[in-house]
Design goal:
5-stranded antiparallel β-sheet, 25% helix, single chain
Length: 181
Amino acid sequence: MLLPRRRDEAIAWPPGIEPHPDLLEFLAYWQSLVKPDGTLPSRADISPFELRRLLAGIAMIDVQPQENPQLPYRYRWRLLGTSHQQHLGVDLTGTYFEDVHVPERLALAHRALLPIIRERRPGYLRMSSTGFTVTSAMHYFERIMAPLVGEDGEVNMLIGMWAWLPIDKALPSADDHDPPL
């Protein structure tokens, strides 16, 4: 689900979804960097010092346009915080998505990231890491991913915050539904 660029816009979370407080802190930080005219933040606007409490859950992804109508962007893990490595059991920093994701998960990742890039708004997702990478580790997580722009104003990077969920918080009750991609 896409999220607002500005803090003064209300968010209609799906029933039963209460995002982790770290995700909401990250979203508020990113929103604070959006300029009054709507210009999105760049990598240079991000301060590791201001994010220091959240760094373990932060990830950055390079977004590279390519000539493929099915997958118009290529993604590379630029940075993965230590909680990613702890939960996945592998450091994916510097790897391209197609080198670590099975085709079905690559397509899923693309469907989740494409609206963030095209709409230039953060996106929320809750899911399992099963089958996502070269590791067999299975963990549930929720994340907020937000766009960053280059000098040309085009989205060239994504920054995100992951919160790893205990199994009892990850699985919806009979009344809850995971948000659609």
